[in-house]
């Protein structure tokens, strides 16, 4: 069973390393810990190194961490999150140039995926499952240049860890731990061609139906929001894997995200085990249910 308390502890462990900004000692220490942790759960781990050309940091060595369960299985699914934290709390009114904890923005999705990895070790699944922790997601500019964001997923989508990699679907987790979080479906009607859009929307519909069946509609609200540039966008753009994004987008939010987004309030005080548990339980159930037959 998915443990919300274990997921919470795994978020806290990341935060304890310090801000995980590429090129820092905290980033390096977190990478070593993540790799060791995933290997301890029986995953085959690949570290995909690449050079990320960022505006605020310059060129920094970055690493996508890929953990595969049942690597020889043909049927595969992809679960992802980003593990880096933004270079500075540039949305903060008081200290916009300082690094911040990134407990929710980065830490929460990774914590849930690590707990799912533990469950897969203890409850073998008849499906190939790949967990990808994307790096250099949060080092973009705020001037509207979309391609400065999500550098790890951009790299992976064009250079998958296995040549010819295919997965039946993908689920991205981003900012999935805050108290009172709400997750909306994404309306991609004018973003991709109709057939691709239909497949992605189908994943959203099935995920939210799973949540409804598990009485988690407080978190998974039956609304469609505007398209978002997040790691899933580049997976959808550059591969044939239909990928949904579970991300906290409060209804009528002034920023589009939670008030703690890219501020120093994004620390452990904003993380709620209940939110982690809701997301983790829904995603875990979805993956194990889909192991019985293709979607």
Q: State the CATH class.
A: Alpha Beta
CATH-wise, what's the superfamily?
A: Zn peptidases
Main beta sheet: strand number and arrangement?
6 strands, mixed
Fraction of residues in H or I helices: 25-40%
The best one-word shape is globular
Strand percentage lies at 15-25%
Overview of this protein structure:
With 295 residues, the protein is an alpha/beta fold. It has a single domain (4-290), classed as Zn peptidases (Aminopeptidase). Helix content is 35%, strand content 19%. The protein has 7 helices and 8 strands. Helix 3 (103-122) links the parallel strand 3 and strand 4 (128-134). Helix 1 crosses helix 3 and helix 3 packs across helix 7. The longest helix has 20 residues, at 103-122. The two termini are 23 Å apart. The mean pLDDT is 96.
Break the fold down into its secondary structure elements and pairings.
Layout: H1 4-17, H2 25-40, E1 44-54, E2 58-69, E3 76-82, H3 103-122, E4 128-134, H4 151-158, E5 170-174, E6 183-186, H5 194-213, E7 220-225, H6 231-238, E8 243-247, H7 273-290
Parallel strand pairs: 3-4, 3-5, 5-8, 6-7
Antiparallel strand pairs: 1-2, 2-4
Which properties best describe this structure?
single chain, 295 residues, alpha/beta, Aminopeptidase, 8 strands
In short:
With 295 residues, this protein is an alpha/beta fold. The protein is built from seven helices and eight strands, in the order ααβββαβαββαβαβα. Helix 1 crosses helix 7 and helix 3 crosses helix 7.
């Amino acid at each position: 069973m998915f443990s919300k308390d274990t997921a919470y502890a795994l978020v806290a462990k990341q935060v304890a390393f310090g801000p995980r900004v590429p090129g820092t000692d905290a980033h390096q220490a977190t990478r070593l810990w993540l790799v060791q942790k995933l290997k301890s759960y029986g995953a085959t781990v690949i570290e995909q190194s690449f050079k990320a050309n960022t505006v605020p940091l310059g060129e920094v060595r970055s690493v996508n961490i890929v953990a595969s369960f049942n690597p020889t299985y043909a049927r595969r699914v992809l679960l992802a999150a980003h593990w880096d934290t933004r270079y500075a709390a540039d949305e903060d009114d008081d200290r916009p140039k300082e690094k911040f904890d990134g407990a929710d923005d980065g830490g929460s999705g990774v914590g849930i995926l690590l707990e799912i990895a533990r469950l897969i070790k203890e409850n073998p699944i008849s499906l190939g499952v790949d967990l990808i922790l994307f790096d250099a997601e949060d080092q973009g500019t705020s001037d509207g240049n979309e391609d400065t964001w999500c550098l790890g997923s951009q790299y992976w989508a064009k250079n998958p860890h296995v040549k010819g990699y295919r997965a039946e679907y993908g689920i991205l987790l981003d900012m999935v731990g805050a108290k009172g979080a709400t997750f909306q479906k994404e309306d991609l009607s004018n973003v991709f061609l109709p057939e691709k859009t239909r497949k992605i929307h189908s994943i959203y519909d099935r995920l939210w139906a799973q949540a409804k069946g598990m009485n988690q509609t407080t978190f998974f609200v039956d609304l469609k929001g505007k398209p978002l540039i997040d790691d899933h966008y580049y997976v959808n753009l550059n591969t044939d894997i239909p990928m949904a994004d579970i991300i906290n987008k409060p209804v009528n939010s002034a920023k589009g995200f939670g008030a703690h987004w890219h501020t120093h309030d994004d620390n452990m005080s904003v993380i709620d085990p209940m939110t982690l548990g809701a997301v983790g339980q829904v995603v875990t159930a979805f993956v194990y249910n889909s192991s019985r037959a293709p979607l």
